[in-house]
Amino acid sequence: MVVLDDVSALLEMIHDAEDETVALTRACGWAREGARATSVGIFAIDGLRQLAGEREAIDGIDPVEIARRMHPGVSVAHANGLVRAMAPVRYGGVTMAVVIARGSAEHASLLSETSQAVASACAPLVRARLDACGIADGAETLAREILGVSPAMVAVRAAAARAATTPFSVL
Hints:
Elements: H1 7-15, H2 20-35, E1 39-44, E2 50-53, H3 63-69, E3 75-79, E4 82-91, E5 94-104, H4 108-142, H5 151-164
Antiparallel strand pairs: 1-2, 1-5, 3-4, 4-5
Helix pairs in contact: 1-2, 1-4, 2-4, 4-5
């Protein structure tokens, strides 16, 4: 369990990040370095939207295969001399994303341990990122009355959408 020696560095790295996107990107970098992976990525289960890392981690994988393998624990798939370790990201009892680490077969156990560590440490960040993506996607429908296409108006609509989803009164 070489990875466990380095988990404190992972936690410090993601806790010091400015936002969830930076933290998820740093976590993928930590995993790539620590597991000697060729690519690491975090992908939402719905539509396999890339949340962080490299898209190459998922190349050639059938979404049905990922869905079939998403159960608690880490799944390892072998193909073309490479292995992919897939660890489900669970939050509140729900699998919402997957960490996929791709690398050589000789590092399979390290890829597996590292992807599981990232999945566990980053679950709240993934939830926050998915929420932010949902708010951004819904900004157009939540604030239709605000007209304009400039970056400033897009930011106003996004701020209104964020405020609309909070349980507090906003003045």
